[in-house]
Design brief:
Layout: E1 9-15, H1 29-47, H2 50-55, E2 56-67, E3 76-83, E4 90-98, E5 104-116, H3 127-130, E6 138-140
Parallel strand pairs: 1-6
Antiparallel strand pairs: 1-3, 2-5, 3-4, 4-5
Length: 142
Amino acid sequence: MPAPADRTAFSMTVTAQPADIDIMGHVNNAVYVRWVQEVATEHLAHVVPQEHTDRMFWLVTRHEIDYLAATLEGETVTLTTWVGTPKGARFDRFVDITGPDGKLRVRAHTTWALLDREAGRLMRVTPDIAAPFMGGGANAAD
């Protein structure tokens, strides 16, 4: 599922390292969770203004991941993420991980909550907070 046209997608690549490989000879499922968090964090770093970062932070509340095909040591995959529609203090985030052949390896749907940095409490995702994610088009960094 590609990002909707009204969302700012972000992509980056990672290469499976020896430490990422499990007993089955492919990338461990826990590594995919780490990659999902890494691409989300990089997306935030690329689009969120510093004044937002100074006032607030995002925290994962839920991961749902479908493992569709294995990734082997040395393979480079592309991680692409975008957000859904904000709901109160939460944003759904989507991540597709594709192989060098363009075929989907992993699809993730995660929920992130926005917290006020000073108070440590949930805060509503206002239109100005959501705006950097709603620009449309792709924003890749490899």
